[in-house]
Specification:
globular; 260 residues; six-stranded mixed beta sheet; alpha/beta; 20% strand
Length: 260
């Protein structure tokens, strides 16, 4: 069985973070593991507080997993601090796990800052170049590049800038926050691949985490990049459409039990 490690924050309400990742890994039938970077106090309404895990303890989690279990792929989500960015970068450099997908979580949907400015700079300088794929949404792409991303053309411009300036091997700019169709743009340094889907008029909790987790699970199982992104987008779309409207008072969690 293929194995995937999530390095991310914890969402006690179960809709995002490592909880969403592990549910997605189960749906994809890969063995999921999780090293926690931060504890959060949040629910479907929003994030109230973040408690970063000390980097020394994060390193201990990572080392003990690696000493015991083969890691075929890694998904990286919220890192919270400069120290955790450094710890994860060093771990990847030392272990050379072949598949790394980074979802650069900078802010929560409710507007809570999840990574400070120094850590964002370090993220681009050290971690991006180690990644197989980086998956910013349009707000994150704007912050990371300084380009105001408002349409497909600026999505392509931001994807190109991230590829050229950070060394990431592939960049997927997610356009779920744009008006009209839900369009994502994948850039591999040579060409763009456009993924379109009809927009579902529903805001769900944990879609970004789930998409990157689904992509890395597909890649771990040997699926090529284009197909892995396409399948993951379909999985998330189905999960949003059949999401749990009866859970929570805010943005409902998507359904992770849909077929791949």
């Amino acid at each position: 069985m293929k194995t995937v490690l999530s390095i991310a924050g914890s969402d006690p309400s179960g809709g995002a973070g490592i909880q969403a990742d592990l549910k997605t890994f189960c749906a994809y039938k890969v063995y999921g593991m999780a090293a926690i970077t931060a504890l959060t106090a949040q629910n479907t309404v929003g994030v109230d507080e973040v408690y970063p895990v000390p980097s020394a303890f994060l390193i201990k989690q990572l080392k003990l997993i690696y000493e015991d279990i083969r890691i075929d792929a890694i998904k990286i989500g919220m890192l919270a601090t400069v120290e955790n960015v450094i710890a994860v970068s060093q771990f990847i450099e030392e272990t050379r796990v072949p598949i790394i997908v980074l979802d650069p979580v900078l802010t929560s949907t409710s507007g809570w800052s999840l990574l400070d400015e120094d850590a964002i700079k370090l993220l681009k300088e050290t971690l991006f170049s180690l990644c197989t794929l980086v998956t910013p949404n349009i707000m994150e792409a704007s912050i990371l590049t300084g380009i105001k991303v408002t349409d497909v053309n600026s999505m392509k411009e931001a994807a190109t800038a991230l590829f050229l300036k950070t060394g990431a091997k592939n960049v997927l700019v997610k356009g779920g926050h744009l008006e009209g169709k839900a369009i994502d743009i994948l850039f591999d340094g040579a060409k763009f691949e456009t993924y379109e889907a009809a927009r579902v008029q529903k805001v769900s909790h944990g879609t970004g985490c789930t998409l990157s987790a689904a992509i890395v699970a597909g890649l771990a199982k040997g699926t090529d990049m284009k197909t892995a992104v396409s399948q993951a987008k379909g999985y998330v779309l189905s999960g949003i459409k059949s999401g749990f409207d009866d859970i929570g008072k805010g943005n409902p969690p998507l359904n992770h039990f849909v077929p791949i």
